[in-house]
Structures are given as structure tokens and as C-alpha cells.
Amino acid sequence: MTIDRALSIPGFMLPTELDYIAGLAQRRCPTLGSIIVELGSWRGRSAVAWAENSAATVYCVDTWADHAFGDAHFPEDPPDLHDHPNWLLNEFQRNTRGLANIVAMRMTTAEAAQVFAAEGLRADVIFVDASHDAASVRDDINAWRPLLKEDGILCGHDFSFPGWPAVETVVRRMIPKFRVIETIWTTEMESE
User: Fold this and answer.
1) Is the CB of residue 115 less than 8 Å from the CB of residue 105?
2) Is the pTM here over 0.90, yes or no?
3) What is the pLDDT of residues 4-61, one digit of tens each?
4) What is the CB-side half-sphere exposure of residue 168 using CA atoms within 13 A?
């Protein structure tokens, strides 16, 4: 299991959370034909952890809108990074370069769910980390839960994160059984 490359990418996912998703990718998607869907990929930190630790095709769904997280700057960012059109998509592409199992889907999560449904695709793992308001989290769970394989894992990020209380509220309301690793909620139970 490796998360070194993922750790080098600016982002908000903790090392312990990257360890968890890397391990989940290895356990659940060790063979070709497996599918991981990441709703909200931003700069690619977690996408790299999924892709480097599985044989799955990792579908990264994001609008890559340049205003995502406003002017969130990290120390290693060039001062004018956000002044360039498509800076966020360009950062994602640069950070995931060489990972042939990543498929970027530049669209809304609802549009991507329609594509998956129309093509009859089902995912082994779906990771919800796009918009964090209550309606968006609810809509993503409703749209994507039917697109999981029968034994698939639904999970997401920012549970109990102070800035996005709606994530916890919606997950508690909609997911009957889950556990939490740092701020990741997951339907993968410990006995698995």
C-alpha cells in the first residue's frame, strides 16, 4: 500500500484517511473490471490513493470549477495559481498524470449518475465528497446508492467536520449502519 504520492498533493484528507481508502481500494478492487467512483476530486489527493492501490477504474467526478474552496492556498502554491483559467482541472491532471486507471468526468454528480445508469455501470465503491450542503449530500446518496454493486461500499468524507455539519446530519438520517474513521463515514463494517 502506498500513499506517498497522494500525500504530496495539497488537500484536506488526513494521512490516516488516505491509509483507509488505500486499504479499501486494495481489499475491494484488486482485479481489473472493478469500479471506484469518487464524487468530488478537487486536486486529486484521494484519487491518487484510490488509483495507486487498486486495479479498478477510478471515475473522478467533478466540475473542477475554478472557484472551488474559494482562494484556498497552500504554502507550496504559486501566488498566482488561482489567476489562471482552468487552474483546478490543470492541477488535477498534473497530479494524476501517468495513472491510466483514472477517468476524469467533468460534470455534475447528477449528470454522471445518469451516464452510469444509462450505461448500466455499477460500482464496487462510491465515495461522496462533492458539495457538502444537505441537499447535495442527500441527492448524491439517492442518485448513487442504486449504482452500487450488491456488496458495494458507500462512503464519504467530512463527517463531523465543523465546517460542514450537514454531512453528518444527512448520513445519520439516510445510512442505517456505518462507522467513522477520522472524518470518513463508511458502510464497510469492521468484520469485513
Assistant:
1) yes
2) yes
3) 999 999 988 999 999 999 999 999 999 999 999 999 999 999 999 999 999 999 999 9
4) 11
**Which residue in 19, 22, 62 sits closest to 38, CA to CA?**
62
Distance of CA 144 to the CA centre of its chain: 13
Alpha helices (H) along the chain: 4-7, 15-28, 45-52, 87-96, 109-119, 134-144, 165-174
- Tens digits of residue pLDDT in 88-99: 899 999 999 999
- CA torsion, points 34, 40, 41, 42, in degrees to nearest 10? 180
Cell numbers standing for residue 23: 486499504
CATH architecture, domain 4-186 = 3-Layer(aba) Sandwich (3.40)
